[in-house]
């Protein structure tokens, strides 16, 4: 049985995997999406979002 990492790597090399990779890159280039991602990361780290756990 192939390891999950090997299977994932093979998927990324397939046409479907390449298409999904390009979609993800396009999403990451969008400034609005980048701002949303930074906000979510800050919330997860507890730096903004008023978690109140201090």
Note the topology.
Blueprint: H1 4-13, H2 15-29, H3 31-45
Explain this structure.
The protein is mainly alpha-helical. Helices cover 74% and strands 0% of the residues. It contains three helices and no strands. It has helices at 4-13, 15-29, 31-45. The radius of gyration is 17 Å and the shape is flat. The mean pLDDT is 87.
How is the main sheet built? none
The helix content is over 70%
Terminal residue distance: 47 Å
Number of strands: 0
Q: Identify low-pLDDT runs.
A: none
Order of helices and strands: HHH
Radius of gyration: 17 Å
Q: Structural class of the helices, strands and pairings? A: mainly alpha
Q: Estimate the mean pLDDT confidence.
A: 87
Indicate the overall shape.
flat
Q: β content, as a range?
A: under 5%
* Helix count from the secondary structure assignment: 3
Could you give a short description of this structure?
The protein has 54 residues and is mostly helical.
Descriptive labels:
54 residues, mainly alpha, 3 helices, 74% helix
